[in-house]
Amino acid sequence: MIYQKEHYFHTFQVDVPLMDRLLKEALRSGGDYSDLYFENTAYGNLVLRDGAVAAGGNHIDFGVGIRVLSGERTGYAYSESIAPADMLACARAAAAIAPETAVIGDRGDHYVTAESNGSRMVKRHFRGEPNPAADRYPMRQPWSDGEMSAFLPFLQGLEAAIRQRDNRIVKVMATLAFQVTDLLMYNSLGELKFDTRPMGSVSVSVIFQQGGRVENKSTSRSFRCGAEMLTDTLVEEIAVQVTSGIDAQFEARRPKGGVMNVVMGAGASGILLHEAMGHAFEADFNRKGTSIFSDRMGDRICPKGISILDDATIKGNRGALNFDDEGVPGQKTYMVEDGILTSYLHDRISARHYGVSPTGNGRRESFRYAPIPRMRATYMESGGADPADIIASVPAGIFVDEFANGQVKIGEGDFTFYVKSGFLIENGRLTAPVKDINIIGNGPEALRNIVAVGNDLRVDPGAWLCGKEQSVPVSCGIPTVLVHGLTVGGE
Amino acid sequence: MKDNEISITPGMLEEAETELARRCMSYARECGAQKVRITLNKSLLDLVGMLDGEVDKVTHALDRSLQVALFVDGRFGSFSSNRLEESELRPFIRQAVDTVRMLEPDAARDLPAPERVARDAVTGREMGLFDPVYATLTAGRRREMAVRTSLWHRKTALGQGFTLVSEEGEYSDSVFDTVVMDSQGLFARHTETSFEIGYEVTVEDPEGNRYASYWWDAAPTLAGVSLDDCSETAVRRAALQIGPQDIPGGKYNLVVESECASKLLNPVLTALGGYAIQQKNSFLDGKAGQQVFAENLTVLDLPRTAGETGCRLFDSEGVATAEFPIIDKGVVTRYFINTYIAGKTGLAPTVEDSTRIKVLPTGGCKGLDDVLRKVGSGILVTGFNGGNSNSSTGDFSYGIEGFAFTDGAITHPVREMVVTGNFIDLWRHLLIAADDARLCMSKLIPTLAFADVDCSA
Q: What is the pTM of this model?
C-alpha cells in the first residue's frame, strides 16, 4: 500500500528540513552516506486452542534507525523516540563510525552507483516518489478496519473444517497474525521513499492419535495483503493440506541411509534453493570472502537450462517489496541464467564494493537493525520435464514432498535439510512412505548434479522466515527436480 | 557503586519509568481489567564489529518496552508497546481492554497466587549479575578492546597448511533491566550486564577448499570474559577441519563436545514444557515419575546460583524460581507448568521454564580428552548442521561435523554425516557426562558420550 507522503510525515512527525538536519548531524564526522529509516508496525494476533479463540493481543513497534556509512563500514543507532533531541543524539551515536577513515566532503558520491551504459558511465539514483499505481500489495480490506472480533469466525470455521476431515484429531491450534508497517526512508542522496507493508499469516498445527501413537502436522499461509485473504477457499485449502497424508505419516519409517538420487517435489522443496544456494549468492558473504561462490561470477555452476532468481515483484507474495529497506526499488534478480552465475544479491554496501547497481536486496528485521543483503522470493524457473517422467526415471531413491527446515555452511557450501515426509522410489514408482530424515550435501555439487527440472514451478505460500542475523519474511519455490548423489540419513 | 548511581546508569530503568508502569496498571483497572500484570524492560547494547582487522561497524541500541497482560471478565489478552509516552499508552491500554472483551472466555487464565511469587527480587542486583565497570566504559575503550581481539594483522604467524581468508568478530556489552509487577502486589526486578566476544573465521587449504568455524565467550562481568584468545580458537577449530574423509555409515559411539551438546538436551526440555504436554505434542507426556532415561542421567535446574549467566529469582510471571531436579537418575521428576497450564490440566504449577540447567557429571571424566580415552573409538561431534526432531515421537535426525577417533585419539575430520535416532533411546545410551560445561552458556551441559548411535554417511 502506498499512501500520500503526508500520511508518513504525520505518523513520524517529521518533515524534509528536520530529516536534513538529522542527516547533517549524522555526517558531521565525515561519513560518506547516511540514511534514516522510520518504522511504525502494528501487530495483532489471535490464537485458537482447545476449541476457543481465547488469546490474542496487539503490539506496537515504533522508532527510527540512523545509519552512517564510511567506506564499507557501518555506524548504526536507533531511537524509539521521535523527539528531535533524541533523534539527534541517535545520529551522533551513528556518526561514531566515521572519525578514523572518512573522507570529508565526499558525501554520498561513493554510494551513487555507476552502471555501464555503452562507453560511458552514468550515475544511478533512485529519485522520484513512490507510485501508488505500481503497488505490489494493495489492501482491499485493511486489517485495521473494524474490530478484531470480526476474525474470530475465520479461526472457528477453520477448526471445524479441519476436525471434520479426520476423527483421529485430538488437538487443533490455529493462529492468525497480521501486521501493517508504515515506513519512511530518506537518505543523503536526497531519495525519499515511503511504503506501507501489510502481512497476514495463518498457521495451523494438528495432533493426531491412532492407537497409542501420536503424529503431528502443520502448515501455514502468508501473504502481503489485507483481511481479504480470509476466505472460505483458504479455509478449505489449509484443512486439506494439514490432514492429507496422515495415513502415510503413521505408516512411515526411516529408510536405510546412504547416497541416493533425490527427487524434490515442487513448491516447498525450494527451501533447498534458499539455504544451499541463495545464501551463498548474498553479496555480503562474497564481499567478505566467506562464500563458496566468492570467485565464481561468470562461471557455469549448473547445467544449461537452469535459471535461479530472487524476485520482489510477485504481487501479494510474502517476499514482495515495493522498495527494499534502503529505498531501492524491488526488482527481479537473476542469480543464475542458463547455468551461469550472473549476479549476487546486493545492498548498497556490496554494490559499491563490486561497482554494480544495488539489486533491492537490502533488508532488515526492523528499525533496530542495519540492512544487509537478504533474499525475497527465491525460486528456480520451470524446465521442460514432466514430473511423472522424472520419478519414473529413478530406479532407486527418495521423493521428498515436505521439508521442515534446513541449514547451510556458507564457506563450505555444506547443507542439511530435514525431511518431514516423502516416499521411497523403487523402480520408478513411489512406494513406502518415509519421514524424519535428513538430506545432506554440498551446494555447488548439488547444483552440478541436477539432472532433470520439471515444468511445474510452484512458489510455496507458507510463512517462511529467514534467520540470517535478523528475521525477515521470505518465500521460496522450485519445480520438481532430480538431483543425483545426495546423502540421506536413515537407519 | 552507590545505589543512587545504579539508577542513573544508561540503559537502566529510572523511577519515573516504573512509576509510569504503575499508572498504566491502575489505568487498566479503571478501564475494566480485574487483574493486570505489567512487564517493563529496558536495555542498552553497544557493539563494535571487526572485519579483517578493521572496525567495520559500531552499534548503539537503547530499547524499552511495556508489556501488559490483561484479565478482563474471564478473558485474557497480552499487549505491548515501545511508545512509552503516557499520551500514547492510555489510549493503547483502553483499546486493549476493549479487545480482550471480544475474545472467548478462558477460566484457566489467572495471575499466579501471591504466595508463589518472588519477594526477594527488590533491587534487581540480588543475583550479583551487575558489573559496575559497565558504567565506566566509553566508545573509545570499546573500540580499543575490539581491535585488540583481532588476529588479522598477525595471521602469517597462525600456522602452516592454510590461509586465513576472512575474520569477522564482534565485541559487545549490554545492560538489561526488567521489572514485573501485578495487581496483586508483585514487584520483582532483575538487572544484568553482559560482555561478549565472538569470532567467525574462514580458512582455505592449498587446494582452495574453505572451512569455517567460530568461537565465543560471554560473562556478566568484563573481567570474566576471555577477549584475547577468541579469534585464535576459531581459527584453530577451522583449520582442524581440513582434509575431511568419508567414513562408512553404521552404529558408532558418539562423543558430543560441550559447545554443542545442548542440541541434544533442548528437545527433551521442550518436551517437558507445559504447552507441549497440554497439547499432547510431547514424547514425554505421561512419563512423570517414570524411569525414562538411563540411571546415570541427572539434570538439575539451578536458577539461584549468584553470579552465573542467566540465573534469575523469578520467571516471566514473577513466580519465584527454585532449585530442583528435572530428571533424577533417569526418572522424569518435573514438568514446567505455568499458571495457565496448571489451570488447564489440573497439574500443580511450577515455573514457566527452566533457567540454569545443569547435567551432573557421570562416568568419572573431567573433560573431552578423558572422554575420548575412555570411549576409545567413535565419532566426536563438534557442531550440528541442520536437522530437526519430531516433538510428538522424539525421533531426530541431525547433520553433524566433527572427527573420527580411534584409541582415544582423533584421526581425521569427517564430512556429510547424519545422526538419527530417538531421544529416549539416545539418553538411555548415555555413557559419560564430563565436568567441562562452559559457564558462558545458559545451560551447563558438559561433553557427553553415547553408545550405539546410527550414523549415515
A: 0.90
